[in-house]
Amino acid sequence: MKALIYNSPLALLLGTGTLLGLLTPLGKLAAAAGIDPFLWAALISLVPGIALAIATARENWGRADLYSYGAISGLFAYVIPNALLFTAIPHIGSGLAGLMYALSPVITAALSFTFNIRPPSRGLLTAVALGFVGAILIVLGRNGLAAPEAPQWLLLSLLVPVSLAIGNVYRTARWPKNAPPAQIGAASNLVSAIPLLLLSAWNGGLHTAAILEHWQLSVGQWLASLAMFTLFFRLQWVGGPTYLSQIGYVGAALSLAIGTLILGETYPPLVWTGAVFILAGIGSVALDKSAAKAA
């Protein structure tokens, strides 16, 4: 069963996207508990990074390319997007912030084509298009798209999907030779935790009292993030950048299920229409065998 999941892009996509969807409500609970968002993001990287490093202790850790790769990968995938969003969300609203993540697969596909780095198949492009429409409908139905306080905040937030897309493509293009996905995950997370901790210190949030007080929440987040990063880098290796970029769509669909079944939330028909588009996109990838080979 483990081998089947680890070699199936679709299974990895669903697993990674599901775990990503769990991280969002946990992050909201952490913010409500008064935990600094930069510290929370740093620990999400640091704790799984340490666990993955221990698991891959027998690998060759004396390689310079591993650390340079981890630094660049972490910078574009975690540090820049988190720093930008935490700064911009108060000015652009959660709706536009959600739209920024929805743009990531589209830009990733464009970059993959431009630089010919595992360019997506027709089926995968269909999935990205359907998922993008679905994500927009969900954002419109749940949050709306309030105008930002100033245009510069919208322009700044547009760097988030660009950064995520660059990270997606870079990880495939510059994957260190013979480095297993778990080791790549360890290096990327450990290196990216450093600037996030510095940002937390700059933000005045480098305190652990709230984390210790809400230790159940912290442990749950760390376990979910460890499982997610274990699958995330395997998905990058097996599926490629565009395939991986769809995890946000899966996470968005899962958040609807959590909101409805656990939190008792209700959503307008527009939101459920968006969920149908996302499921249709996932289905198009599942039916197109060339997507997994070409992704």
Please give a structural write-up.
The protein has 295 residues and is mainly α. The protein has helices spanning 2-6, 9-32, 37-55, 64-114, 122-142, 151-157, 159-173, 181-202, 209-213, 215-239, 241-245, 247-261, 269-287, 289-294. It has one domain (2-294). It is built from 14 helices and no strands. The mean pLDDT is 84.
Tally of individual helices: 14
Please write the string of helix (H) and strand (E) elements. HHHHHHHHHHHHHH
Overall pLDDT level: 84
Poorly predicted runs of 5 or more residues: none
- Compute the number of structural domains: 1
Give the tags.
295 residues; mainly alpha; globular
What are the SSEs and their pairings?
Layout: H1 2-6, H2 9-32, H3 37-55, H4 64-114, H5 122-142, H6 151-157, H7 159-173, H8 181-202, H9 209-213, H10 215-239, H11 241-245, H12 247-261, H13 269-287, H14 289-294
Short description:
The protein has 295 residues and is an all-alpha fold.
